[in-house]
């Protein structure tokens, strides 16, 4: 082991630096000197909807910084990464995952059961919009962007009755108690890999690759692989109305437990929602747990395609109204249209 200090690259948001800070701490604890390096990305600057600026916007520039050597290790929110493998980098390591679910943050402690008819709810993600519309067709859905604090601010200010966010973002920044409702598996399935981090190093940096092994948690990686295989096989990006969530039973991976994958593909307006569930026992698979997870993701994707998922998802996304932008924002009106 050398004394080279590994530069851990991250976006600058509170969430991103908190997440990357955990990775840095784990590296240091394992004997690898490490420090954070903040990489500013256009996703942090431009307030246009993610559907327009491209899903890669959060991860593209961090990957470019890693390739250039501005950092040695990059920490991404896994769900923001494109599904295609990128050969510039070593296979992705996945630290222990936190709660993958979505949460509602509503005024006055309102939940999905008590939100009044026609309540104004903010979320841009097509996956959340379509599943919410299916659960509660009466809701008045508003697109919005911005970091977690900005989004929650619309509820505090009274502009919206509620917003939907990833539990992970709240839990990791210590704001988990702001959630008034955690969506269950039957209500809303998260984005594939939500709540998981993706940690990358350059493909030729053997020292950094060795360090990746100490932050990797195989059961978390196996769950994410099942979810992302499904997403890739549906040929959908993270802006598609596709949700997936894989969970081990109590026996876990080491105990030879069962991995269950829940998946959903929905029409943008929530008028049709295709759901499916399947299981596998990864520890018993002859080709290993990763192969078992891939097989499960493939199997459920094939089933959803068979049932018409592609037609459902390729139907034009409904015209959305202009997204809310933070009042204090000095950013010019969004003009960026390329990823
Ligand atoms: N696309 C934005 C994004 N990327 C990762 C998270 C939350 C943390 C995570 O899911 O790992 C969020 C915010 C959100 O969806 O509410």
Automatic annotation (TrEMBL):
Sorted UniProt keywords: Porphyrin biosynthesis, Transferase
Domain Porphobilinogen deaminase C-terminal: 223-305
A single GO BP: protoporphyrinogen IX biosynthetic process
Enzyme Commission number(s) from the entry: 2.5.1.61
Gene3D superfamilies in alphabetical order: Periplasmic binding protein-like II, Porphobilinogen deaminase, C-terminal domain
Modified residues (S-(dipyrrolylmethanemethyl)cysteine): 238
Catalytic activity: 4 porphobilinogen + H2O = hydroxymethylbilane + 4 NH4(+)
One GO term describing the cellular component: cytoplasm
UniProt keyword Transferase, yes or no: yes
Keyword DNA damage assigned: no
Molecular-function GO terms, alphabetical: hydroxymethylbilane synthase activity
Biased composition (Polar residues): 328-339
Cofactor requirement: dipyrromethane
Cofactor note: Binds 1 dipyrromethane group covalently.
Occurrences of domain Porphobilinogen deaminase N-terminal (ranges): 6-209
Start and end residues of each stretch annotated as Disordered: 313-339
Function recorded in the entry: Tetrapolymerization of the monopyrrole PBG into the hydroxymethylbilane pre-uroporphyrinogen in several discrete steps.
HAMAP family, per database record: Porphobil_deam
UniProt cross-references to PANTHER family, sorted A to Z: PORPHOBILINOGEN DEAMINASE
Miscellaneous section: The porphobilinogen subunits are added to the dipyrromethane group.
UniProt record similarity statement: Belongs to the HMBS family.
Subunit structure: Monomer.
UniProt name for this protein: Porphobilinogen deaminase
